[in-house]
Amino acid sequence: MSEKVTVRPSSAAGIALDSDVHLRILVVDDDVDLCDTLADLLVVAGCVVTTAHDGLQALRAIACSSPDVVLSDLEMPVCNGEELLRRARAHASPVPRLILMSGTAGLAESAQRLDVDYLRKPFDLSTLLDMLRRPP
Residues with Cβ < 8 Å from 110, sequence gap 6 or more? Predict the structure, then answer.
């Protein structure tokens, strides 16, 4: 089971991505409540969101929905975030932008090894939105 964390809306309420850009985002986290909350906040920000609760579900979702961004927890049962990102790079075409998130030690090292962006939980929604606005 994953650690209990929160995504803080803080001053991000009302902040949206560019209205002409509707990023397709796959949110992957075994903490169902966190996954659903994050998805709801991203929808309000103007994103099209799909969710999955483990890496294998996420791989199926990537094949079906071709997301622009995969925002994945690092520590999950069945197929963790690192394995998910490796498999997505090997099989997805085009390869989505990959962002890891975790509240555990080792996140920065994993992200560096995989050459991806990362967010340390808990994080403000504005931090995620700023990251999504930047070019990959």
Answer: 74, 81, 82, 100, 102, 118
**Beta bridge partner(s), residue 72:** 28, 100
The side-by-side arrangement of strands in the sheet containing 48-52 is: 48-52, 24-28, 69-73, 97-102, 117-120
Model pTM score: 0.84
Exposed, middle or buried by CB within 10 Å (0-12, 13-18, 19+), for 131?
A: middle
Average confidence (pLDDT) over 48-66 = 94
Q: Which two tokens mark 26?
A: 């796959």
Task: Please check whether residue 35 is in contact with residue 27, taking contact to mean a CB–CB distance below 8 angstroms.
Answer: yes
Where is 123: in which H helix or E strand? strand 123-124
Neighbouring CB atoms inside 10 A of 16's CB total: 12
Question: Which residue's structure tokens are 């079906």?
Answer: 64
Q: What is the pLDDT of residue 76?
A: 93
